[in-house]
Amino acid sequence: MSVWDDLTGQPEAIAIFSAAAEASAAGGSDDSSMTHSWLITGPPGSGRSNLAYAFAAALLSTGDPEADESVRRQVDARSHPDLGSLSTDRVIITVDEVRKLVATSNYSPSVGRFRVMVIEDADRMAERTSNVLLKALEEPPPRTVWILCAPSEADLLPTIRSRVRSVRLRVPSVENVADLIARRDGVDLPTATRAAREAQSHIGMAHRLATNEEARARRAETLEIALGVHSVSGAMLAATRLLSLAGADASALTAERDAEEREGALRSLGIEPGGTIPPALRAQLKNLEEDQKRREKRSLRDGIDRIMVDLLSLYRDILLLQLGVETEPINLSIYNKLVTASEQSTAQETLATMDAIATARRRIESNVTPALALEAMLVSARRTA
C-alpha cells in the first residue's frame, strides 16, 4: 500500500512530494525537488494535513515494504520516533508549544534518514510565536525537514514565506471525494456522493456525513430551520435552536476524544479505571481537563461556522434557481423545497441574506455573542410563507 493511496484530487501536489521523497532517498539535493522547509496551503478539507503526513511517511521510509508499512502506521498514530507534530484545537498555537517542537527538531534522526516536523494550522501562530519558528527555519539541522500547513500563504509572516517551498492544493471534485470515502470507509457510492456534495468536497466533513447518521440529521434540521423562518420572533427561536444544534455537534465530536484522553492519562499514571486518584497526580488531570474545556469552546465555534457554511450552500442553491442557472444544487435532496423557497423571495433578497451570513461569521470570529449574531442573520433570512 502506497502512502499516497488515501489522498485524492491532488495529482500535481503528490507528484511534487513524491519526486522530493525519491530524490532524498537517492541522496539528491537539487533545489527543484527536495528542500528542508515546506508549506502546504489549500482550503479547509482539501487534505493539507493528510498530504503532510503522507510526505512524512515517504521521507521516513526505509525501502523495505514490510518495514515501511510499520512506518506508515507509526506516522498515522503520530508515534514514530523521528516525527514531531503540532496541532491545536484551541484558537492559537502557543509560543511554548513551538519552542518545545523547535527544541526536538535539533535531535538527530534515530531510525530514519530525516527528522520530520509537521505543524498543522500554522496560521494560528501569533507573530511572537512565528518568530520562534523562523529561527529554526533559517538554520535547520541538515537532516531535519519542516512541513507547515495553512489555508494560504498570506496567513503566515512574509519572513516565513520566504524560507519555505509552497505547494498549493485545490478543492477536490465531488467525484474524487466520493470515490475516496466509498473505498476507504466502506460506504455505498450514492451515500458517499451525497455526503461529498453536501460537504462541498471537504474530505473530513464528507467522511462524517457519510458515516454518522446523527450528523446528517443535524444538517438536515439546520436547513429546515432556516427555510421555516417567516417572522422576527421565529428568527429568535430559530437562532436558539441552531445554537443548540451546534452545541450538540461539538459535544459529539469532543466527548469520545475526551474520554479516550482521560483513560490514556490514567493508564499512563498507573491508575486503574474507577480507581482513586492520588492528590499528587490530580494537578496533571486538572490540566488535561482545562485543555479539554478550551477545545470544547473552539469546537463550539467551529460547529457554528459549519452551520453558516451549510446555510450559505442553501441560499446559493436558491439564488441559482432565481437566476435561472442550470447546475446541480448542493442540496439536491431537498430540491422541491429549494424551488418553493426561490419563489418566496427575490435574488436581491437572497444576496442580502448571504451577506448577512458572512457578516455573522465575522462577528462571531470577533467574539460577538453567537446568539446575537445568529438572530441578526436569521432576521434577514425570514421570508413570507
UniProtKB/TrEMBL annotation:
Its EC number is 2.7.7.7. Keywords: Nucleotidyltransferase, Transferase. One of its GO terms (molecular function) is DNA-directed DNA polymerase activity. It is an enzyme of class 2 (transferase). It holds the Pfam family DNA_pol3_delta2. Coiled coil: none annotated. This is DNA polymerase-3 subunit delta. It comes from Conyzicola nivalis.
